[in-house]
Amino acid sequence: MLYLTKEYKFCAAHRYWNDKWSDKKNEEVFGDDIKIHGHNYYLAITVKGNINNDSGFIVDIKELNKIVSKNVISIFDHSQIEKDIKWFSDKQPSTENMVVFIWNQISNKIPSGASLHCIKLRETPTIFTEYYGPNK
To answer: Which domains does the chain have, with CATH numbers?
Structure first.
């Protein structure tokens, strides 16, 4: 089995806040991240599959780019995640939740007989989350 990773980037803002908690508890848990702030996110989409004998590729990158652009980048880029994306209305805009959202957006759309293997989302130089799907 071969694995191919394509990287993307987008910019988005968010803030952490739990309405069920007091102001003090929100400050204790989230610190300065209770304030709206942004990140330059780096997204890695890894697909797996066999080489297509005609093209020599696992996946048609142009098609993958269209899928990711339409179903991920156009939704996240320059958004305030928890306010602009309905799915996050009852979830924190963490990278942990973001990779699940991204997986759900594209897992059944991967072209050329390949399949989605992993979503990796880097929020800062020192924090990233990897997700291998709901059954892994």
So the answer is: 2-131 (3.30.479.10)
Q: How many CB atoms lie within 10 A of CB 24?
A: 8
Using alpha carbons only, give the angle 90, 67, 83 rounded to the nearest 5 degrees: 25
Tell me the two tokens of residue 87.
């799915």
Q: How far is CA 96 from the centre of its chain?
A: 8
Q: Is 91 left (phi over 0), alpha (psi -120 to 50) or beta?
A: beta
Give pLDDT tens digits for 73-102.
999 999 999 999 999 999 999 999 999 999
Q: How does pLDDT run across 29-38, given as a tens digit for each residue? A: 999 999 999 9
In which order are the strands placed within the sheet that holds 127-131? 79-80, 2-14, 37-49, 115-124, 127-131
- Cα distance between residue 106 and residue 75, in whole Å: 12
